[in-house]
Amino acid sequence: MGSGVRGGAGATPWRPAGDVTPPRVSVVLPTRNGAATLPAVLDALSRQRVDFPFEIIAVDSESSDGTPELLRPRIDRLISIAARSFDHGLTRNLGVENVRGELVVLLVQDAVPESDEWLAALTEPLLADATLAGTFARQRPRPDASAITRHYLARWMATAETGHVAAVANRAEFAALDPMERLRRCTFDNVCSCIRRSVWTRFPFKATPIAEDLEWARDVLLAGHRLAYVPRATVIHSHDRSARYEFTRTYLLHRRLFELFEVRAIPTLPALARAIATSLAVHLRCVRAEKGTGALSEVPAAGKGSRPLVGRAIALAFAWPLGQYLGALSAMRGWKPFRSRMV
After folding, report:
1. How far apart are CA 49 and CA 11, in angstroms?
2. Residue 140, strand partner residues
3. Inter-residue contact 29 to 59 (CB < 8 Å)
């Protein structure tokens, strides 16, 4: 169990729970083959300066890279599940079912708290305001993130420098909103969030391949609760993934966005063509800027471990718009979704 004094000269190092003090806060970590990133996450958790005890619980999905062995001496409880049973909503529910704290921090295995004040900042609004059901943190890209990743992450609402509190007056007001405004109102991100367990007991996460956080946010807002974005609580988190992965993830996400909010970011084939053309221009500018040259012919060929270069930039320029268009279209037409274990 972790404990410390917020703002003090030195916080007590985190240790697995041995004392009988009930934790006020519980951290839930879903994991799978996270040995490369978890040490930094656990080190950051051990440095948190707070004036309350907290526990750490991991739910591991058949890791084969030594993740369970890495976790056991550094956390309070390790729950193991079959990889095939992983679900973004239900797996998090399993973690929350096993916590003792009233406030539950949901953190992914590669989101590294930026400072030793992160946990205090994330939980402070919930401790001060009983009308809040949850908070979520700001995300900043990893130092080695590609220019393309930085470009798009900067446009995600969980990267803004200014905090806000979201609320919905009633269902009629919510229904009258533009679909994109409904999505903006319900922005919530379980990359790093904190929820009130007493609210979760009435609104557990639902089984879903993606966007369990957005669906939960919609449900609790419609029930009269409020949610807060807390940029003072920042984590370092970003990915440079393959175009195939990004297409699959985007397809599944935009299918859910249509189901939840009727969002169609790219509603027509002409809009799709324009989006691809715009993406190509943006991505190639990112490549030029990243390599410090104005000539694409001067960009070196990609090798193992290299930055995403021209080929990947072009592939992503098609993958993301196509995923948005086809995902929403499949939901609108009632097509059977494909499931993927990639996301």
Report:
1. 5
2. 236
3. yes
